[in-house]
Each structure stands twice: as structure tokens, then as C-alpha cells.
Amino acid sequence: MTSYRTALGRARGLGSAKHGVGHFIVQRVSAMALAPLGLWALNSALTLSRAGFDGAQAWMHAPLNAILSILLAIAAPAHMRVGMMEVIEDYIHKSSTKAVLLVLNYFVCVLTSVAAVFCILKIALIGAAL
Amino acid sequence: MSDAKAQSRGPQDRPMSPHIQVWRWHVTMAASILHRATGLALYVGILVVAGWVIALAAGASAFDHYGALLASPLGLLVLFGLTVAFLYHLANGVRHLFWDSGKGFEPKTADMTGWAVIVFGVVAAVLIWIIAFLNTGAAQ
Fold it and tell me: Which domain holds residue B83?
């Protein structure tokens, strides 16, 4: 029996192309970033809790604070997305509901990340609205 | 169908997955469930923090409203809960990273570290809030 499929065509989809642990890696690497970033954010929250609007603006103007805030705004939603994805996959068995929730989760995480990064950049570079 | 049923093992000797209805509570199980629960709480927590940045970018009026919401009794309760959740999730996350490297799997060690991260999460959060309130008092 001759087949029109090439060797590559037969091999595709058959097994590991070493991407199977992508989510696992994302979860661990973002966790490693979030451990120090989270502690820094907690410490910053203590300062910011009594800084007021002007103090908070001035705080975000400092490049180090803006940079670490942006890193947090990227790493945290990445970690959230994989964590919530695991929960959805574990508990939601109806495939249509699962698909909707997975997409919703993805959108919420990306939107949160982009909105936060935009606001941080706006405050740091232009200043907050009056 | 009935043949297949007769050949299958009965309910008694089937292996069971570790579900809360069939496994008694123990600390490593509680730590695992708490990790997931605190993770879900922190999902909302990040949205709260993102809301703070958005309010700051939106201007003084929005920022003050958001700040008043966070400083309300319910807001403070939520923030305290998120502090516990964060510190617990952080400590247990480090425990997971040690597991990923193959360390800490002995039942005794796993039990001990399980208790340690639970106690750490609560005690550290209480201490941080005491310090926060003392500092606020000193500033006024």
C-alpha cells in the first residue's frame, strides 16, 4: 500500500515534540518570579497604604517601582491563567462549558495584564489623570 | 454488559482516588486543598490589585473612592484574608518547588512542612497587620 503521506505527515501528532510540559514550566518559572515580586509588592502595599494619591503617583514614577510592577503585572496573570486552567480542567467535565470557561479565563488574565501594564506606564511616564 | 460487570472487580477492591468523601483528613491533604483554595482567592486578589492601579491611573477621585472601599471593614477583612492566602500560597509554593526537585517526600517531612506552611501563613499575616496598624498609629 503506497501512501501519499510523507514521513513527517505520519510522525506529526504521534507524540512528544517536547512541548508537553509547557504549562508545567510556565507555572514553575512564574512562581519563581512571583516569590520575590510578591514579597516586594506586600512590602510596597504597607508603604502605599498611607501614601495617598500624590504619594502613590510619586511611588510609581520611580523607575524601579514601575519596572517591578510591570513584571508583577505580567508574571501574576501568567501564573493565574495556568492555575485556573488546571482547576477548570479538573472540575468541569462538560466540554462546551469547559471550553467557554478556559477561553474566558485566558481573556480575563490577558486583559488584566494588559490593562495593568498600560496603567503603570501611563502613571510612570505621563502621570495619572487629574 | 452483565458479563463485563461480573468480571470487573467489586467496589471494595477498586482503587480509589484521594477524594474527600473516601479519604480521612490529614495535613498534607489539607495543605494541598488550601493551596488550590488560596490560589483561587489570589486570582481575585490580583484583580483587586489591578483595580488599584487602574484607579490610580484614572485620577484622584477614582483613587480615593477605591481606597475608601479597601479601607472599609469588609475591605480590610478581604485584604487580611488575601495576606494570609498570599503568604500561605507562597510558602506552600516553595514546598512544591522542593518536591519538584525530588526533595521532602518522606511522609514525616511532608507532614511537618505541611503544618509549617499553614502556621507560617497565619502567623506572618497577623504579624504584618500588627506592624501595619502600629505604623499607621505612629503616623497619626
Answer: 27-40+72-139
Q: Report whether pLDDT(B2) > 50.
A: no
* Displacement of CA A81 from its chain's centroid (Å): 6
Closest CA to B94 of B70, B60, B117: B117
| pLDDT band with cut points at 50, 70 and 90 for residue A12 | confident
CATH number for the domain spanning B109: value is 1.20.1300.10
CATH code for the structural domain at A22-126: 1.20.1300.10
> Quick check: B63 and A128 CB within 8 A?
yes
ipTM for the predicted complex comes to: 0.87
Q: Establish if B12 belongs to a structural domain.
A: no
Count the domains in chain B: 1
Has residue B3 been placed in a domain? Answer: no
Cross-chain Cβ contact A31/B49 below 8 Å: no
Distance from CA of B96 to the nearest CA of A (A): 9
Q: Check CB contact under 8 Å for B56 and A69.
A: no
Mutation target vs A (from B33, B53, B134; most A CBs, 10 A cutoff): B53
Q: Where are the domains of chain A?
A: 22-126
Whether A16 shows a pLDDT value over 80: the answer reads no
3-state secondary structure chain A: CCCCCCHHHHHCCCCCCCCCCHHHHHHHHHHHHHHHHHHHHHHHHHHHCCCHHHHHHHHHHCHHHHHHHHHHHHHHHHHHHHHHHHHHHHHCCCHHHHHHHHHHHHHHHHHHHHHHHHHHHHHHHHCCCC
